[in-house]
Amino acid sequence: MNLKESLLKTIAFFDCFDSPLTAEEIKIHLYRYDKPVHIKEIKGTLNQLAEEGRAEAIKDYWVLKGRAALPETRK
User: Fold this and answer.
1) What does the alpha-carbon distance between residue 63 and residue 23 come to, in Å, rounded to a whole number?
2) Using one digit for the tens of pLDDT, what is the confidence trace for 33-47?
3) Can you tell me the distance from the alpha carbon of 42 to that of 62, in angstroms, rounded to the nearest whole number?
4) How far apart are the C-alpha atoms of 46 and 60, rounded to whole Å?
């Protein structure tokens, strides 16, 4: 599995529980990605997902597109 897929699956899993994650939390819980990865690479790939319209950052939390209300739910 490549990094982009792993990031998207991680975000989607936590989305099921209405629990958005920060980039640092995503790195900790990264789904089925065993290669060493730096937080800068994760943030860059998250930004690619945002450009593709598959995810978005709301107040430092990453959510699936259309789930912008989740960061408030987490608080």
Assistant:
1) 11
2) 989 999 999 999 999
3) 12
4) 11
**Strand pairing class (61-64; 55-58):** antiparallel
Taken as a whole, the chain contains a residue count of 75
pLDDT of residue 75: 62
Return d(Cα 41, Cα 8) in angstroms, integer.
14
**pTM given for the model:** 0.88
Residue 74: pLDDT band with limits 50, 70, 90: low
Query: Could you tell me if 9 and 53 are in contact, meaning their C-beta atoms sit under 8 angstroms apart?
Result: no
List the one residue out of 14, 20, 62 whose CA is nearest residue 39: 62
Query: 68's torsion region: left (phi>0), alpha (psi -120 to 50) or beta?
Result: alpha
Alpha helices in 16-67 (DSSP H): 23-29, 39-51
Two structure tokens written together for 44: 């860059």
